[in-house]
Amino acid sequence: MKLEQLRVLDAIVTQGSFRKASEVLYKSQPALSQAIKSLEEETGLTLLSRESYRPVLTPAGKAYYRQARGVLDQVQALKELAGKLSASQEAEVRLSVSVTCPLGNLLSVIGELKEAYPATDIRLMSDAMGGSAERLMAGEVDFIIATMDGLSTEAVHASPYTAVNIIPVAHPGYGPASSRKRLSNAEMRPYVQVVVAGTGQGQYDQSRDVVPESLRWTVSDFAAKKEIVLARMGWGGLPEHLIARELEAGELVTLDLKGYPIRRSQLHLVRRREGALGVVAHELWERLSTN
What we know:
11 strands; WH_DNA-bd_sf; 291 residues; 7-stranded mixed sheet; transcription cis-regulatory region binding; globular; transcription regulation; transcription
C-alpha cells in the first residue's frame, strides 16, 4: 500500500468520478484505475462498486476509506508541522471575515498578535454572501470567519467561532412596523427590503431571507443598510450586535414575519485542508480557536 494510492482513492470519493479525480490529480484515468486495482489486490478488498455509472464505495470500502482519510490527515498534519518548524515569520496574514461577524474579540486578538509579530502585516477583508468562501478556495486568504454554507468538510478544517442573530427590523414609523399580526410574504411585497450585495461571483451563493417579488434596495454594507432602515426608507435583517442600542431605545423594532424569522447564523473559523499556515497565521488561528 502506497500513500499515492490512498490519495487516488480519496480524490475519487471526494470528486465523485474518475474523470474529475484525474483533473484534480493531473493523472490519466487509466493511471487512476490501475492504482485502485493495485490497492484492491494488495488489500484483498473490493473498495469501489463498478455496478453504477459513478464509483461508489462498497461497505468494506467505506470502512477502509475512513481509516485512509485519517492517515492522509495525519500526513498533512506532519507536513504542516514541518512547514511551521522550518518557516520564518511570514510577511502578511490574509483574513476574510463575514460582514455579520462582531469584530471586538478578533481585533483584540490581532492587537496582541501584532505585539508578538510586529513585522507581519495583517490584511483584513470583509465579505458577504459567499465572498469569504470564494476567497478561501481560490487561495486568496489564509483562513476565513464565515458560515460553512457551500463548503465541504472534506476540503476544509472548520472550528465554531461565534453565533449571530439576524433580526428583521424597521423604524417604528415605517409601514409594516405598525402591524399587530404576523405578516406574510405577500403582505410585505409593497415595502422596500434593503439587502447587502454579495462580494463573490456566486460560486458559494448564500443569499437567503429575501422576500420574493418584493421591492428591493441593494447596498454594499450593513452600515448603509442600517442608515436606510433608520431613515424609514425600508426594512431588513441586521446582526443583533449592530442594532442592540437602537432596539433598546425604540429607534428600531423587530418585525414579525412568516417568511423571515429571527435567524441564528453560526460562524466558523475555516481554512483549507491543503497547504500549511504560516507561523503567524497559525498562531492567530490557535488564539481565535480558544479565545
